[in-house]
Specification:
alpha+beta; Aminopeptidase; 7-stranded mixed β-sheet; 22% strand; elongated; binds coenzyme A; transferase; N-acetyltransferase 8B (putative,/pseudo; membrane; L-lysine N-acetyltransferase activity, acting on acetyl phosphate as donor; transmembrane
């Protein structure tokens, strides 16, 4: 197990960071596909569609071809929320990581580095909501290279965010994940984050029943000892 250390993002890390983000999201496609296959609507389409075609045309071949052509379409649907998310973030906060995360005191972006490679990422931005009574930080883009998982890197990155939040006088850290990202949910829960709810965000998420799950970590008073 190679040692790693956590440091602030530098422009030269960009290629690694974008790669980690894209791979980290793309790896959820198979689980989303399996979930999609189990949805009642999909089962009806997969069984009822070919059956209806068979009854109407009397052709087994047509019915089989219809079933087979549905699978790539369902795979496309399962992939879409993840590619949409990556495309959107690369157009917004991640288009210029230094500008978005490192130009103000209350935000930051870190990487975990091991053997001169970036193997983990996490970012944090303040939540800009004037109705909030507490000062709130949002955690973004936690991702660890698949070959470096299970070594506590994600935990260390989240702790870095929590420590930063405390140092900057935030009272809460929030984040969004999804009901497909089971390792991430286990990680956040094991670190004391509490689930506050879930929602269906966009049309692709609705189609594949991908719920965004919201978590919060309430920081003890800033005077308490370090995390
Ligand atoms: C989620 C992710 C960041 C975890 O990274 P990691 O470095 O392997 O996590 P850690 O080694 O720090 O594990 C910390 C805790 O997370 C949980 N965890 C991590 N992987 C897990 C898994 N496969 N199954 C169940 N729990 C898991 C455990 O509670 C673990 O604590 P433990 O080792 O004391 O049991 C990583 O799997 C990843 O990058 N996934 C793809 C991107 C993604 O989904 N990111 C989340 C964005 S919200």
């Amino acid at each position: 197990m190679a040692p790693y250390h956590i440091r602030k993002y530098q422009e030269s890390d960009r290629k690694w960071v974008v790669g980690l983000l894209s791979r980290g999201m793309a790896e959820h496609t198979p689980a989303t596909f399996r979930r999609l296959l189990k949805l009642p609507g999909t089962l009806i389409l997969l069984l009822g569609g070919p059956l209806a075609l068979l009854l109407a045309s009397g052709s087994w071949l047509l019915a089989l071809m219809f079933s087979l052509s549905l699978l790539p379409a369902l795979w496309f649907l399962a992939k879409k929320p993840w590619t949409e998310y990556v495309d959107k973030t690369l157009r917004t906060d991640m288009s210029d990581i230094t500008k978005s995360y490192l130009s103000e005191r209350g935000s930051c972006f870190w990487v975990a580095e091991s053997e001169e490679k970036v193997v983990g990422t996490v970012g944090a931005l303040p939540v800009d909501d004037p109705t909030l009574r507490e000062k709130r930080l949002q955690l973004f883009h936690l991702s660890v290279d698949s070959e470096h998982r299970g070594q506590g890197i994600a935990k260390a990155l989240v702790r870095t965010v929590l420590q930063f939040a405390r140092d900057q006088g935030y009272s809460e850290v929030v984040l969004n994940t999804s009901n497909i990202q089971l390792s991430a949910m286990a990680l956040y829960q094991s670190m004391g984050f509490k689930k506050t709810g879930q929602s269906l965000c966009c049309v692709w998420d609705r189609l594949v029943a991908l719920h965004t799950v919201h978590f919060i970590y309430r920081l003890p008073s800033a005077q308490a000892g370090s995390l």
